[in-house]
Amino acid sequence: MATKQTLSERADALEEQQMKALGDRIVGKSLLYYLSDGEQSLGEGFGVGTGRQMLMGEDPRLPAMPEKPNLIDFFRLRFAPSQQHLLQSANLAQKNGLPEKMVLACLLHDIAVTGFIRSDHGYWGAQLIEPYVDEEVSWAIRMHQCMRFFPDESVNYAYPENYTRMFGADYQVEPYIAAEYERAKNHKWYMSGRMICVNDLYSFDHNIVIELGQFEDVIGRHFKQPEEGLGNDNTPASHMWRTLRRPCNAL
Ligand SMILES: [Fe+2]
Ligand SMILES: [Fe+2]
After folding, report:
1. Domain CATH for 235
2. Are 147 and 195 in contact (CB under 8 A)?
3. Residue 224 zone, left/alpha/beta (φ > 0; ψ -120 to 50; rest)
4. Residue 54, strand partner residues
């Protein structure tokens, strides 16, 4: 009689499968992963003296990517499942009648949180997409980092309630955020950054599922997908896409 695997048995089996796929290779984790655990380490470092080789190239534990990956491939094969926040924010922007360019900005506004690095996410996110979008889109994404902390009554934007819960009632922004906001305030694209905050769903609805396909046309028209594939092209952001594709290359 076939016995059903428990959840933990399935997890163990998956781990074993992944270990097999890796062979005996050492996964070279970056300092950043260890710093996130409060450690200053490179783990097994460079495997000197172990007689083992290090992982280079595609990571067999992660979903295989096509030769020439596009933005949608990264959404599907790399970004965290929590991408509903992005999809629902873009959906709201669409419902509110924002121009397509701004719908794209809302779709990508937290791309760093969902897909790369959380800390200073507005800056990382803007940098990741800068070569492929209108300058206004990346500017707005960069600046939503600071703007979201400051209310704007003219568009009914208040300090997010959940920030009080998440960061504490006495949380004060860092000086660089306050200074950046001062610069953003007088910029010609101020309202574009602000529109990201207004359509940013701080508590999104778990009962609604928005599909990425809804924005395929917007992406097609406003994200300049490189023919060679993201990471294979030659822009100041290509290395970031490559790192996302193969996050544990030893060097
Ligand atoms: Fe954000
Ligand atoms: Fe957000």
Report:
1. 1.10.3210
2. no
3. beta
4. 26
Ligand sitting nearest the alpha carbon of 148:
1
How many whole angstroms from 22 Cα to the centroid of ligand 2? 35
Note whether 70 and 212 are within 8 A (CB). Answer: no
Contact 86, 111 (CB under 8 A): yes
CA of 25 to the centre of ligand 2 (A): 37
Helix axes 100-108, 84-95, angle to 10 degrees: 160
The CA 7 to ligand 1 mean position distance, Å, reads 33
- Cβ(197)–Cβ(160) below 8 Å: no
Task: Give residue 38's domain range.
Answer: 1-55
The ligand with the least distance to the CA atom of 203 is 2
pTM metric for this prediction? 0.91
Please indicate, yes or no, whether residues 92 and 21 belong to a single structural domain of this protein: no
CA of 221 to the centre of ligand 2 (A): 23
Write out pLDDT tens, residues 118-153: 999 999 999 999 999 999 999 999 999 999 999 999
Number of domains in the chain: 2
